[in-house]
Design goal:
The structure is a single chain. The chain is α/β, with parallel strands linked by helices. A hairpin with a 5-residue loop joins strand 2 and strand 3. The chain has a seven-stranded parallel beta sheet, sandwiched between helices. A three-stranded mixed beta sheet has the order 10-12-14. It has a two-stranded antiparallel ribbon with strand order 2-3. The chain is 40% helix and 20% strand. It has two domains: 206 residues, 3-Layer(aba) Sandwich (Rossmann fold), CATH 3.40.50.720; 96 residues, UDP-galactose 4-epimerase, domain 1.
Length: 330
């Protein structure tokens, strides 16, 4: 099977590619297990060069907003598409046109290319809990109407509906996952409004100071990258009848406050490490984060077997194990 990962050079794309190469099999739209013969990483940047050591990996640098490039990547023998490419939240808010090009037009390009294949591919779309907003109950149930309050959330909500409609028409075997905030991300801060949630763990563990732009009692709905990749692969493996007419769901996650995140960091790495975080309020970031739901009851996701982390201490430990080689700067 040929597998295409858009955003393949990104954080989740890289981890997903590594797992696909490890498991070496996926279920196709006919329910048959197929060997992974080719993993195509499509992104505007080059992927981790270590991935290219595997002969099954092909890197394609291009523009998700260009329908011809997307059509060339999602070639006739493509059996599965993982659409992870996106402009993140604050970036889409600051540059509306870029967000529309990548998050909306890019999704339309992927779906159109997938529709042109002889056999409808399995397609997993990375959505976000940012599709919720406005006046919300304290705890978000599965059936709550979508009311995003950011350009990013709006673009993701439209993408979900497109995936649903393409699946209804039989053009793709699509499914959309609403990701919680994924922590801890490696590397440098990005333009996501939630980037601080990784920075306040990542930087202190590497001996650096970090700034938190929101209040200590700010709650976040989070999930580790391990569990996100597990969820993406599980979503791809579930048969269509398990999804029924609703092809989207919110993933189970953890609700934690900033104070609880720092307490977990201290419990794992010590008070000295946690003390490297200082608070500097940023009204722009605080306003965006205030519009996000923090408490969820993802009953459908749990019923389908999607799992969350045991606690935030586990998330801290996962980052140390997976990204820091098992050690940190005490």
């Amino acid at each position: 099977m040929r597998v295409v990962i858009t955003g393949g050079a990104g954080f989740i794309g890289r981890r997903l590619a590594l797992r696909l190469l490890e498991v070496n099999a996926l279920t196709d739209s006919a329910g048959r297990e197929q060997l992974v013969e080719r993993v195509v990483l499509f992104d505007r940047a080059a992927p981790d060069p270590r991935l290219l050591h595997d002969p099954r990996v092909e890197a394609v640098i291009g523009d998700i907003g260009d329908p011809e490039q997307v059509r060339a990547v999602i070639a006739p023998d493509t059996g599965a598409v993982f659409h992870m490419a996106a402009v993140v939240s604050a970036g889409a808010e600051e540059d509306f046109d870029l967000g529309m090009t990548v998050n909306l037009q890019g999704t339309m390009n992927v779906l159109a290319a997938a529709r042109s294949l002889l056999a409808p591919p399995r397609l997993v779309f990375a959505s976000s809990v940012a599709v919720y907003g406005g006046t919300m109950p304290e705890t978000i149930p599965d059936g709550l109407i979508l009311n995003p309050q950011t350009s990013y959330g709006t673009q993701k909500a439209i993408g979900e509906l497109l995936v649903q409609d393409y699946a209804r028409k039989g053009y793709v075997d699509g499914r959309a996952l609403r990701f919680p905030t994924v922590v801890v991300r490696p590397g440098k801060p990005n333009k996501a409004a939630s980037t601080w949630a990784s920075s306040i763990i990542r930087e202190p563990l590497q001996g650096e100071e970090a700034v938190c732009p929101v209040e200590p009692d700010q709650a976040m709905y989070v999930l580790s990258p391990r569990k996100v990749v597990d969820a993406v692969l599980k979503a791809a493996a579930l048969p269509p009848e398990a999804w029924g007419p609703a092809r989207m769901l919110a993933l189970p996650g953890l609700t934690v406050t900033v104070s609880e995140m720092l307490a977990a960091l201290a419990a794992v790495a010590g008070e000295r490490v946690a003390a490297r975080v200082r608070f500097e309020p940023d009204p722009f970031i605080q306003e965006i984060v205030n519009g996000w739901a923090a408490h969820f009851d993802p009953a459908r996701g749990r019923a389908l077997g999607f799992e969350t982390d045991s606690g935030f201490e586990e998330i801290v430990c996962i980052f140390i194990e997976d990204e820091l080689g098992g050690s940190f700067a005490a």
